[in-house]
Amino acid sequence: DQYSISFSFTPTTDIPGPSLLFGNDFDHPIRDRLPPGFNAAFRIVKWAIDPGLEGDVYADKPFLYGPAGSSLNILRVGEKKSEKSKEDGKALLEGRNEGEEEEEEEGGEGSGIDQRQESGMPAGAEERKKWFLKEGSKWTWEAGRVYRADFFNPYLDFNDFALKLPGFSLSILPYLGGEDSLRYVLLNKSTSEILFVVVFTLLQKARMGGTEVQAAEKTQLGAAEAGDDDDGVD
Fold it and tell me: Which helix (H) or strand (E) holds 196?
């Protein structure tokens, strides 16, 4: 896989299963920059990667979202937190401890296992994603419960910002509006509340100072060395 977005979150209010979305969006139009063959590429994405993906790339603020329950590669359902750990109006997000590398596994912990079983959610990741597209209305992202997730795929190459699909390759850099960045969001469709944002930015040496180049190369080298370890990289 080319990259991974690993996170955990705790909703502060119940969210209906289909209402929690994960995907990409832009704050500027890209319709005039879409390449020939984009619709074909999108059909391949829906077939090969995420059948639940929907969106409007011709809108003033284009987006491609899928239900989180079917888009996320790994979903682990945890215990409920105490009331003291909640914050009003926002989801609580947790990061890993510095230097900690731990690969998430599909499943649950404690009462989280019960929630999966009681809703009918299958134990396996691929089965869960297919189930969610048909039975997602049976699921609720419960307030106060910890959910851990990991999103990854081998199709987006950040070395040159290219989408590499089965039998199809497309450089997306010319179509990002000159921002050289790609944004992922988790949001509640029912309230239009964005729960978190992750932005990948392409750092070009021509625009960077010497210190910035060295820091970026050091980070890239560290990631490559970690990737060679048996335990892998989150």
Answer: strand 193-201
Q: Which two tokens stand for residue 167?
A: 């039998």
pLDDT digits (tens, 9 = 90+) for 85-98: 444 334 545 544 44
71: enclosing H helix or E strand:
helix 68-71
* Residue 23 CA: distances (Å) to CA of 26, 33, 50, 188: 11, 20, 11, 12
Distance in angstroms between the alpha carbons of the first and the last residue of the chain: 11
As a whole number of angstroms, the distance between CA 41 and CA 162 comes to 12
Which tens digits make up the pLDDT trace of 66-113? 999 999 999 999 999 864 444 433 454 554 444 455 678 999 999 999
One-letter identity of residue 148 = R
**Residues in contact with 111: Cβ distance below 8 Å, sequence separation at least 6, in sequence order:** 79, 80
By CB atoms closer than 10 A (0-12, 13-18, 19+), residue 202 is: middle
User: Residue holding tokens 């790609």?
Assistant: 182
